[in-house]
Design a protein that fits this description.
Keywords: ATP-binding, Nucleotide-binding, Transport. InterPro entries: AAA+_ATPase, ABC_AA/LPS_Transport, ABC_transporter-like_ATP-bd, P-loop_NTPase. One of its GO terms (molecular function) is ATP hydrolysis activity. This is Branched-chain amino acid transport system ATP-binding protein. The protein is an alpha/beta fold. It folds into 2 domains: 192 residues, 3-Layer(aba) Sandwich (Rossmann fold), CATH 3.40.50.300; 76 residues, no CATH class. Helix 7 links the parallel strand 7 and strand 8. The protein is globular. The structure holds adenosine-5'-triphosphate. Adenosine-5'-triphosphate binds next to strand 2 and helix 1. The site of adenosine-5'-triphosphate has 12 residues, from strand 2 and helix 1.
C-alpha cells in the first residue's frame, strides 16, 4: 500500500497498486502513488507507456484489473464516468472530440448542461422533478442558472484570449486543430473541476500555439491554485514550465517520480525515451527533423 502521508486527505487522488491488462498487454503495472490536492503533475513517457490508460482509469472510462483508485477516502474505480465527473474530475481526450455542428459557445455550454436540470455538482435547492418543471416553464430560478452558465462560458472562452471568444458563434467543424484542442479544454474547465485531466493538450500545436497554451495553463494555475492538474504531455518544455512533479512511465510502470528537472535528466528516462525519434528529439539527443 502506498504510504504517502497525504493519502485519504480530502481531494487527494490515491492510485493504489493499480494494474490494467488488455489481453496479454500490461498497459499499467502496479502503479502506486498519491496526487495531493492542488498539485500539477505531469505524466510523460514513450508511446505505449500506459499514460492514457492511467487517465482513462482515473476518469472511469476503463476499470483497473487490479488495485483501487480513491478520491480522499472514497473508492472511485468502480464508478461510472458521469459519477466520477460529478465528483469534480473533468478530462480532455488525446484526440479532440468536438460536436462539429454546434457553435463554439454551445459546445462549451454542453459542459454546464448537467448542472441545469439535476445531476452536476452545483448544490440543488429543489428536487429533480421541480428542477425539470422549472426548466420546462423557464421559471426565474432556471433562467438565473442559465444566465450564470452563459457567464461562465464567456469567462472560460476569455481565458484563451482572442482565440475562441470572437468565434463563439462559429460551428466547431470550422475550427483549426489547435482551436479544437482549446475548445475541448474549455469544455472541461467550464465545469470548474477540482481535478483536471489533460491528455496531450499541446499535441499538434505549433511552437507559438504551444507557448500560448502554456500561458493559459499557467494563468489557470494562478487563478485556481487548489485545482489538481494531471497532464500527459510529450512536449517536455511544457512539462518543465508548468509541472511541479513528473512521473515517467515506461511499459506500464512508473520508473521515475521526481521534480521535472530531475526526472527528465534521469538516465533511465533518457534510455526509455531514446527508442523513439520524436521523443528523443525532445531531449535534444537528435534533431526533430532527422
Ligand atoms: N483498449 C485497448 N485495447 C487493447 N490494448 C490497449 C487498449 N488501450 C491501450 N492498449 C495498449 O496498452 C498500452 C498502453 O497504451 P496507452 O495508450 O495507455 O499508452 P500511452 O502511453 O498513452 O501512449 P501514447 O503516448 O502513444 O498515447 C499499449 O500497448 C496499447 O496498445
Amino acid at each position: 500500500m502506498n504510504t504517502n502521508a497525504n493519502q485519504n486527505q480530502p481531494g487527494t487522488l490515491t492510485i493504489n497498486k493499480v494494474s490494467r491488462r488488455f489481453g496479454g498487454v500490461i498497459a499499467a503495472n502496479g502503479l502506486d502513488f498519491t496526487i495531493p490536492k492542488g498539485e500539477f503533475l505531469a505524466v510523460v513517457g514513450p508511446n505505449g507507456a500506459g499514460k492514457s490508460t492511467l487517465l482513462q482509469m482515473i476518469s472511469g472510462i476503463i476499470r483497473p484489473s487490479e488495485g483501487e483508485i480513491l478520491l480522499g477516502d472514497r473508492r472511485i474505480d468502480r464508478l461510472r464516468p458521469e459519477a466520477i465527473n460529478a465528483l469534480g474530475i473533468s478530462r480532455t481526450f488525446q484526440t479532440s472530440r468536438v460536436f462539429p455542428m454546434l457553435t463554439i459557445r454551445d459546445s462549451i455550454m454542453v459542459g454546464t448542461q448537467v448542472g441545469l436540470i439535476g445531476g452536476g455538482r452545483a448544490p440543488r435547492k429543489y428536487g429533480p422533478v421541480t428542477e425539470l418543471i422549472s426548466a420546462l416553464l423557464r421559471l426565474p430560478a432556471y433562467q438565473a442558472r442559465v444566465a450564470a452558465s452563459e457567464k461562465r462560458v464567456e469567462d472560460v472562452m476569455a481565458m484563451f484570449g482572442d482565440r475562441l471568444l470572437p468565434r463563439r458563434n462559429e460551428q466547431a467543424f470550422s475550427l483549426s486543430y489547435a482551436n479544437r484542442r482549446r475548445l475541448e479544454i474549455a469544455r472541461a474547465l467550464v465545469q470548474d473541476p477540482d481535478i483536471l485531466l489533460l491528455d496531450e493538450p499541446a499535441a499538434g500545436m505549433n511552437p507559438t500555439e504551444t507557448d500560448e497554451l502554456t500561458e493559459v495553463l499557467a494563468d489557470l494555475r494562478r487563478r485556481r491554485p487548489d485545482m489538481t492538474i494531471v497532464m500527459v504531455e510529450h512536449k517536455l518544455q511544457v512539462v518543465r514550465q508548468l509541472a511541479e512533479r513528473c512521473i515517467v512511465m515506461a511499459m506500464g510502470t512508473a520508473i521515475v517520480d521526481a521534480r521535472p528537472e530531475a526526472a527528465l535528466e534521469d538516465p533511465r528516462v533518457i534510455e526509455a525515451y531514446l527508442g523513439t525519434r520524436r521523443t528523443a528529439a525532445a531531449f535534444g539527443k537528435v534533431n526533430a527533423d532527422d
